[in-house]
Design a protein that fits this description.
5% of the residues lie in helices and 37% in strands. The protein is mainly β.
Length: 303
Amino acid sequence: MRASFFPLLFLIGEAAAGGAHVSSISPTYISNGGGVIFIDGSGFSADNFNFHDPILGNKIWFYNDFETIQCDSPVKKNWLLQNPQAPSTTRVVCSLPARQSKQGSDWYAMKLTVDGNEAENASQFMVKFDNGKTPTLRKIDHRYGAPGDMVTISGQIFTKNIGPGASDLDNFDELDTRSLQNIFFGTANCGLMDELGNPWGAYLDVKSDGSFDKEGSITCETSGSFIGPQNATLLVSEYGQSIIDKSAFSVNSKGQAFFYHTLPEVSAVSPNTGADNGGTFLTLEGKGFDGYEDNTQVFVNDA
């Protein structure tokens, strides 16, 4: 019995020593809209291809007394991070959604499992949802447009630096470590720069003492082909994802709330004459058409 007991203790001790360990997380203060969390340590799973297995891989949650929020890893959207899904046993990156309840503490403790085994010290690390670090979109210059249109958005954006390459741009503020990482309308990127890498426009309001305010505006070029109601999400590095001020929402004829609404645009119709009894085939040119069969209908004088 004694001979088999000590090897068993050794194996248990070896397994515990080889478990996941968290050394730090950043940021620890985050926007109410959520954001990207970097978790450093050791013993993490380097395999992101777990084929949707509920146990395998790195699983991260943040919780308070009233709710538990899953932090998605790998990050599903490319927020211009440097290869956020690269496998590593020493760093995990996850995307934390907005908190769903205002009940309980603003501080959320972390739970992390690796292939089903919990990192025992993970709960020592916490994230606070902070009003003071929440980018807020308050206004858009036009609520309706076609895919590819330019839009200007105003609100609490905190910085006028754009992207990881901000230091190369003319409007770079070397005293500001934050940057506007990206902005999405729905699932489509709204480009902050032209093809040459020049910003379309990012500005902060100036206070009476000459310092920069948190409020400002950004201009971006919409993309994609989706037609319909959309909401926007801005990511500010070190802080997280934006929320939309309630006053910035509109409601369409179907009762759907939106921040921006894309519509198809017709630029030409040919031929522009035809027989009285119909039968003329028309060609419409423009943008924002849906390529799927039966998703687009054309009426001429309600016919």
